[in-house]
């Protein structure tokens, strides 16, 4: 029942209990958190869905929880300050699964909150993307304990360097060297140091903007005093001057972030697949109708689109009322889908995830960030596998039964899958003369394999193509 999701902050712990997200807060910190939640700024941030909704549990709420096995042991009554409950974000995701566009949006949200709470004499003590989750395409700040009282004359934002390491420098690395967020955060939880990028800069680039101010000067200064001068406490007698210095810092960071904002149109391997694929207009329309009919008939609430490409069918499901998680290994496709979902206000969460190598558990004992499969298994009532099966079978050499077994674990009800014959042009292109290795892959053998786990509700052949669409329903599913 219990999953500890954070423990690094000495002020409290965040954990899930059943389907609830709870946070214990120590007495010393409670004196800061309660007044902040009562501020107009906090109310406004919650109302605009920038800050997670939070309520303090009453004595009656806690008494009820203490009746459940194990709760008293994990949250002892003695010495406890308070327990809060957060709104649950349905599908957590992490920076190493985000396209650069989502990292940029999380950075902007962090600056917005840091600047907004100045008026109530609060500050953010952390500036890490791990404090942000996405509800669909919209970022939301989730770490209540990041807010602390600010001395009125304090002109220093101590997380400045952390913000640079975890937002500015990774986006700079992507813009100029194509280093993906996954390549950064899967290896460096706390982002990049300036000297990580300094060694990539040539003798001229070190003196050019933005490298001079964001990479070279911080590297040189850290060599001089280890950066200790940055963290020395300074309090000004003039409180307005201190506020002005902080506002100027946030505006400067905002401009720096805007300079490394990912731009649309960056071409990748599969970014133009929809325009260059072998579907005729009639076949694509037939495919769309097949999926739309299933969505209208079964009205799924949660859809996982595996190999979503630029997300045409993800958005189709979202328009039908589903909450969608869309995954693809192509960074450009996922970034383009995020832009579309944001602009059209679609409930689509696009993630850079390779289904053959899904995100593993990360952090201390691999438990701080759950693996993608742990988060996904049984969390969707419908799974799409459109134009992806042949890539799994041929490129990745995953046996058909393994693919279908995984699909059956992920969905609680429906699977919409596209069968691609060995005679298909794309199949032959990726097989590269090795079609004989898949000689036993026929429509009959495919259907037989499906019927181990699923009932075939209906199928549709795409005319003139070597492809067949299937709507499958899981056998032995729960009707609850």
Summarize the structure.
The protein is α/β, with parallel strands linked by helices and 480 residues long. Helices cover 40% and strands 18% of the residues.
Oligomer: single chain
**CATH topology type of the largest domain:** Rossmann fold
- Main beta-sheet strand count, sense and barrel state: 7 strands, mixed
Q: Give the % helix.
A: 40-55%
The CATH architecture designation of the largest domain is 3-Layer(aba) Sandwich
Supply Rg.
Answer: 25 Å
Average residue pLDDT: 90
How far from one another are the termini?
Answer: 20 Å
Our count of domains comes out at 3
> Quick one: CATH class of the largest domain?
Alpha Beta
Number of strands: 16
Task: Report the sheet-strand fraction.
Answer: 15-25%
CATH superfamily of the largest domain, please?
Vaccinia Virus protein VP39
Q: Which parts are unreliable, with pLDDT below 50 for 5 consecutive residues or more? A: none
Strand order of the largest sheet: 12-11-10-13-14-16-15
User: Strand pairing plus helix content: what structural class?
Assistant: alpha/beta
Number of helices: 19
Please state the overall shape, judged from the principal axes of the Cα atoms.
globular
